[in-house]
Structure formats: C-alpha cells, structure tokens
Amino acid sequence: MKRVIHSLHIIAIPLSFLLFLASSILWFRSTKVLDDHSYHLSSPTHRTYTSLGLRTQPGYLLFSWSHGRWDLRADFLRDDPLSEENLAANPFHPRPGFNHRTTSSRASGWSFWDRQRLRIDMGTLSTPHHMGGFGSISYGDVSFPPWFFPAISSLLPLLYFRRRLIRARRQRRGLCPTCGYDLRTASEICPECGTARQPTSNPAVSS
Ligand SMILES: [Zn+2]
Known about the structure:
This protein has 207 residues and is α+β, with helices and mostly antiparallel strands. It has a domain at 31-146. It has five helices and six strands, in the order αβββααβαββα. It has helices at 2-30, 73-79, 84-89, 112-115, 148-172, and strands at 33-43, 48-57, 60-70, 97-104, 119-127, 135-144. Strands 4-1-2-3-6-5 form a six-stranded antiparallel beta sheet. α1 (2-30) packs across α5. The radius of gyration is 27 Å and the shape is elongated. The protein binds zinc ion. The site of zinc ion has 8 residues, from loops.
C-alpha cells in the first residue's frame, strides 16, 4: 500500500506541475484573447445532440456541456444543429467534431468579486412529445476564476520542494533527513526512524 501511494506521488508531482504550467499559460492568454474550444456530435440513430465546451476569457474559465434527446426522428431531423441544412442556414454554428475559435478578448462584465467566485449552473428541461414538446435536454456549466487551477496545481509541487529543502538542510546539519534526529553521534542507521544515513559529501551515490 505504501508503495502504491509512493508511486502515485511520483506521477502526481510532475503531472501537477504540468497542469500548473498549462493553466498559468491559459490564465495569461485569457487576458489577451478569448479562446473557445468545443466539441459537437449528433447521432440520428439515437436522436441525440451533445456538445462540450471550454472557454477562457478575462474573469473566468468556463466548462459547459449539453445533451439533448428527441422523442421523434422527424423532430430531430428538423432541429439537429449539425444537419447540413441547419449548418447552411447558420454558418456561425460550430461544425461536427472539435472546433476552436479565437477572438480578441472582451471583459466578462462581472465585478471583481463576481470574478473570484466558482459558479455552477445546471439543469434539465423535459418536454416529451406527448406533452407537445420535443424530448429532453440536460445542460450545465461551471466557471472557475482563472487563478483557480494554477493555485490548486501549484500545491503539490510546492510541498514537494519544501520537503526537499527541509531534508537538504537537515542533512547539512548532520541530522536525520527523515525525522530530524541528531545523527552526529549515531551509527549508520537513525535510531529514531530507521533511515539509513547518507554521506554528507555525496560521491555519486544514487538512491
Ligand atoms: Zn530518523
């Protein structure tokens, strides 16, 4: 179990660091341009339309999703935003598959404190055919302040570097790097926690 946790740790730190870099770049980029990534898929067989989106703008980073299901094929064929007919009628609608649009950034219009909040909005609309509707749709979006991911993902790497610093400092002072026990008079193994003593001047020893 300890091994598993240790190997998870080994993977989590570089991953977290990568996430930190990527989200920091996104944060910086969001102040200059508005990025709109989205994925759209419709299925005539299942009469469904699904879209996923990620948008960055000064003030927030927004994930959104929606999934609609039509009761009748005829209704679906009329409404499907990705049908050739509807795409021709609305040339600005994203195409099937992945889409990316970059435009110059606009402020979100939210006040400073509005922008520091996590917002979640989701719901379901259901108007079945027998009630005069088309079917059902579920939708939602979550928006994060742009600093949220850089802040969260910096925690693990910061803790890691802090621990490295503490260990290095203990070793320099002749203390056990793991628990801080004074090893200057002790043998090769820490009597407190059992950590093997490492030579202070390190002649190419790998652990
Ligand atoms: Zn120790």
